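Sequence in, structure out. Go.
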Amino acid sequence: MAGSRGAGRTAAPSVRPEKRRSEPELEPEPEPEPPLLCTSPLSHSTGSDSGVSDSEESVFSGLEDSGSDSSEDDDEGDEEGEDGALDDEGHSGIKKTTEEQVQASTPCPRTEMASARIGDEYAEDSSDEEDIRNTVGNVPLEWYDDFPHVGYDLDGRRIYKPLRTRDELDQFLDKMDDPDYWRTVQDPMTGRDLRLTDEQVALVRRLQSGQFGDVGFNPYEPAVDFFSGDVMIHPVTNRPADKRSFIPSLVEKEKVSRMVHAIKMGWIQPRRPRDPTPSFYDLWAQEDPNAVLGRHKMHVPAPKLALPGHAESYNPPPEYLLSEEERLAWEQQEPGERKLSFLPRKFPSLRAVPAYGRFIQERFERCLDLYLCPRQRKMRVYRGHSDLVRCLSVSPGGQWLVSGSDDGSLRLWEVATARCVRTVPVGGVVKSVAWNPSPAVCLVAAAVEDSVLLLNPALGDRLVAGSTDQLLSAFVPPEEPPLQPARWLEASEEERQVGLRLRICHGKPVTQVTWHGRGDYLAVVLATQGHTQVLIHQLSRRRSQSPFRRSHGQVQRVAFHPARPFLLVASQRSVRLYHLLRQELTKKLMPNCKWVSSLAVHPAGDNVICGSYDSKLVWFDLDLSTKPYRMLRHHKKALRAVAFHPRYPLFASGSDDGSVIVCHGMVYNDLLQNPLLVPVKVLKGHVLTRDLGVLDVIFHPTQPWVFSSGADGTVRLFT
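Output:
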């Protein structure tokens, strides 16, 4: 066994020198490789082997410092992977040969073999890689971040990373001391620092500036004119013409036949010559009845400018000049109430007259008058009541208007003509009136003393009026009438002749009546103390109920939410929002007013306005806060009524000063954008009577018109 082992030990060295002799023939001038490429068995030895010289240790000291703790395990693994039959003697023989090569300053034999193999790969492979000593291939180099090596060489040995023990301070010093630091980059394949040459730096700069990499490349080469403009004797090609070039096309023939058929049938019309006459016309000219504007029977001509008088002279007579008291009185007046829009002044000469300060403003207002002047007169005054008119209501279609007065009558008007269609005597003061909002029901509710009267005016569609009577007569009373806070009474024959159908008696004076959006429920406010101030009636079942168990003050107004099951109750100092299904208080709005007089809900349901007797109008944003979003003080006296327009972004308020102020209130769909409130117009026309002015305000359901009722016994329509 010993002899066989000895023979085995001497056999390996006898074969390997032959391989080393053939290597110089493959590459006669091998380039010296860095110490990183030397194999690890040459740089490590066991503890019993002391044949490594000082020069060998200095050459491979970089690999020992690069950080492999288990050098013996790596050596054993590498030796087993290369040749499992090598023993100690064979290993020592390889070391002796390597030691001689190192002492002779010759390249490593494994490096020579790698160079020979590199030469073979270049001969067989067409790869254009710059450095293929690292044979990891397309494996991401991030996988080697946690390992001491960066890849493997051609022999399968690990290529260790260079030792990186320099901190940021050392890097900064190198940056300051080394003039070539800016052109030094790290090779990701080997981990070494490479210095870019001048040619490489120029290439990088050209690529960064969007130029071509090749310096000699010219992107603007002169175009080669293959076909000259000169007429040649011989053609470019002698290819004979196709047969289809002189035979009529069947496809085109079919298209032409279809177009001819369309022209015969009149589907294709020839183009008519355009009329050269201009398409505009004189808007202010006197048109004949057959003209386009002849349909407007009440056409309003363009307003003309007033001619200047003596007061506008630069040297007016002394009687036209205002005294100091008259000037102060003129400044305190409203701009619309002044007789003159300017103060007369006297100048010694025309040269001393300065430029008119309001010239541009007056020219702009004149353009607005010409552009926005209504072409049809819509102002209406509804006269007929002998006492103050307290309440108004418009039908859902906007054709009819109902008004209640202190003269003990209800009047039904036609909106377009201001004609009183019917007068219904009710025998008492009408405090509130409301038209049913459902278009399928023709019904009006009026609060008279301690009762709510339900009337069928029988206006408009007769089918709707007939279906309303059938709906009311189809009710079957229960055998045992339930206990209710109100009594439902049928109208007598005489009362039915004037339109009365039902009477709801409460025993206490009724101050307000309002309908739910669907038209089946109506809420009333009673002038009494306790929790029965607000009652809700159901028309289809003729039932009444008191929704509250206790009182929170004197109730002034109530209103239904247009989309949700909410009921808004306004007392003197607060507005409460109740959820009818959950039967709980949702919000409590604090208007900061002494006495709330009126209430209105925006058609979208997220905003509420309140009027008060201390001449304040308060806007609430329910999504924002329970405190007022904006408080307007445009009126000088108590507010009696406020109203929102169902379609347009408008709201109006009526006051005892005899004016109606219309404001623009835009509510945006974006919850992050606050409402926009802008006053638009002050409407005046009512005469103050008993220190009372406008008592009620309501908008037309479809048009931008506003109705107002006043203490002078008239109803006015403003456009």
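Check: Residues 1-119, 121-131, 292-297 have pLDDT under 50 and may be disordered. Residues 2-26 form the longest helix (25 residues).
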